[in-house]
Amino acid sequence: MEQFNYNNELSGKIALVTGGTKGAGKAIADRLLQAGATVIITARNAPEQENNNLYFIASDLSTAEGAQKVVKEVLSGYGRLDILVNNLGGSSTPAGGFASLNDEDWESTLHANLLAPVRLDRGFLPQMIERKAGVIIHIASIQGKLPLYDSTLPYAAAKAGLRNYSKSLSNEVTPKGVRVLTVSPGWINTTASEAWLGEIARNSNSTVEEAQQGVMNALGGIPFGRPAEPAEVAEFVGFLVSPRASYLTGTEYVIDGGTLPTI
């Protein structure tokens, strides 16, 4: 059995983290960097705090051109990619259920949350398969199983599609040496979610703590009593892409503090 260096277990690996400038994506990028990987991050806008140890590519992955730009720049600059973390995602559609959504709402959400990973996988998989090595992580969401129809209908549908696609892709490429895994977080405590809670509190004339409890109630409760911290998600992703997880593939892992009511 291969011997692992736990202190620098990703040394020599090239990793790409999409949406790697903020929130869970930033935490994942930092975690892979700490494990010795060469880490590339991509987002539409540069990170607020520059880290010279991370290579940044500005790109809009909600477009086919943006995905092609990233694939071309990574492969031309580094020659290969060992680890792909498809973390980019989010919802900016209006609340109000199906009647409040138009085609543009649906299309923009599906492009960012489903088609961006599909395009990047398609771009990077050939060289992984040729080398019979590689790990792809799809960051989905518990909303793939627990949709909030009033506020995030397209997002929930896209993440459900991502979960199904990830399993199908794993069945195809695992025999060719590439591991594919899905990580589905629940609510994560990010600067964006803090701003969102502040907006809820102002609109409802309540405290931020009351707003947070209201969101947890809407999810059916979080037994752990709080959202996840980005570093908690990143730590698990760091394990999954490491040699220690060499037999894990085709599986979805939920990080939700017990939110989902069923197993």
Automatic annotation (TrEMBL):
PROSITE patterns: ADH_SHORT
Example of a GO MF term: oxidoreductase activity, acting on the CH-OH group of donors, NAD or NADP as acceptor
Keyword Nucleotide-binding on entry: no
Metal-binding is among the record's keywords: no
Pfam families reported for this sequence: adh_short
This protein's UniProt keywords: Oxidoreductase
InterPro entries (alphabetical): NAD(P)-bd_dom_sf (IPR036291), Sc_DH/Rdtase_CS (IPR020904), SDR_fam (IPR002347)
Similarity comment: Belongs to the short-chain dehydrogenases/reductases (SDR) family.
Name under which the protein is recorded: Short-chain dehydrogenase
Record organism: Chryseobacterium taiwanense
Lineage: Bacteria, Pseudomonadati, Bacteroidota, Flavobacteriia, Flavobacteriales
